[in-house]
Amino acid sequence: MSDRIFLSPPFVGELERHLVSRAFDSNYIAPCGPQVDEFERRLAALARRRYAVAVSSGTAALDLLMDFYGVDASWTVFAPTLTFMATVGPAFHRGARLEFVDSTPAGNIDCDLLDSALAQCATAKRLIVSVDLYGRCADYARLEAIALKHQAVFISDSAEAVGATSPQGPAGIAGRAAVYSFNGNKIVTTSGGGAVLTDDPDLAAAVKSRSQQAREPVLWYEHKRVGYNYRLSNLLAAVGLAQLDRLPAILEKRAATARCYRETGLDFLPPVEGENHWLNVMLCRDEAERDRMIAAFEKADIEVRPVWKPLHLQPVFAGLKTHGGKVAEDLFARGLCLPSGTGLDRSDLNHIAAIVMQAKSSTARK
């Protein structure tokens, strides 16, 4: 690694190396084995769910859920516009109609607009995919009530929120099912990976089967449906187990970083109780100031990034129905994700804060 300060790099060490070595020595290096089984048990416990199925990515997890519910062109899928493409990618590939919903100033989906959008929808088959943006849980109780009111399926994209909590419980507890991501930049990483969390035994069994090519439980290769090669590797699950062992310390370190940032007096997204502080989002005065900040950080070899570009502004989704959008557009124009990695030390944070202050001072003199 260079001396560049990255946004949220992996934070691994000797414990991960030790557990991977044990898995390697056991010769369980395929997408099955005791480490996968234990990882799933611990993920289910973390999310307070009955079942967890470990797969190759958060996107794969969402795709398997879309497959289970039979999402196709007869469905309408509602999702926040302020999110990463993967939230709706699987639904798009299956031909579903997409409708985007604006955010609250705190970043998560605006439940009032979602309620109104569903009331206007003539499609009988409806799916809500909420997002726990930047590790900040959405309003699970309200989302559950809206889904029940409109007879919609509700699943939670908790990809960014491992370890976060809400008044209803841990991230991943909400909806018919939820998904986690263990990408290299997440709070808990397996380098690449994801999981489906659910209390539904039929859903869990179907997801597990379909993630392993939907092979029937007989000696020969028998298939009644076409599945996917989406299962998580046992070696990567070993990395995940080590990360879960360290999760409390990781969360405390991330919270300490957030406190340091807020002590500067800069403007950030409004805090959400129980957030995991995956990324700290600073709010600039306007888009011009955001861009000057980006240039200053790049000159200092520090990675920063604007918040997610709203999906309704993405060229591939031009013209799709959007409910609201101005709040998400404003957050994109002014929001800047600052380095938030677990490995940051106080000198790194002081350096980052100094660059922000210098850039703001330079802006004020113009």
Looking at this protein, list some descriptive labels.
366 residues; Aspartate Aminotransferase, domain 2; Aspartate Aminotransferase, domain 1; 13 strands; 15% strand
Would you kindly provide a written description of the structure presented here, covering whatever features stand out?
The chain has 366 residues and is an alpha/beta fold. The protein folds into two domains: 14-244, Aspartate Aminotransferase, domain 2 (3-Layer(aba) Sandwich), CATH 3.40.640; 247-365, Aspartate Aminotransferase, domain 1, CATH 3.90.1150.10. Helix content is 39%, strand content 15%. The protein is built from twelve helices and 13 strands. The protein has helices at residues 14-26, 34-47, 58-69, 89-93, 111-120, 140-149, 201-210, 234-245, 247-262, 287-299, 326-334, 346-365, and strands spanning 51-55, 75-80, 97-101, 125-131, 153-157, 165-166, 169-170, 177-181, 194-198, 280-283, 305-306, 322-323, 335-338. It has an eight-stranded mixed β-sheet with strand order 1-9-8-5-4-2-3-12, with helices on both faces. Strands 10-13-11 form a three-stranded antiparallel β-sheet. Helix 6 links the parallel strand 4 (125-131) and strand 5. Helix 1 packs antiparallel against helix 8 and helix 10 (287-299) packs across helix 12 (346-365). The protein is globular. It starts with 13 loop residues before the first helix and ends with a helix.
The helix content, as a percent range, equals: 25-40%
Beta-strand residue percentage: 5-15%
According to CATH, what is the topology of the largest domain? Aspartate Aminotransferase, domain 2
What's the tally of helices?
12
Question: How many domains is the backbone divided into?
Answer: 2
**Low-confidence stretches at least 5 residues in length (pLDDT < 50)?**
none
Multimeric organization: single chain
Number of strands: 13
- Helices and strands: which structural class? alpha/beta
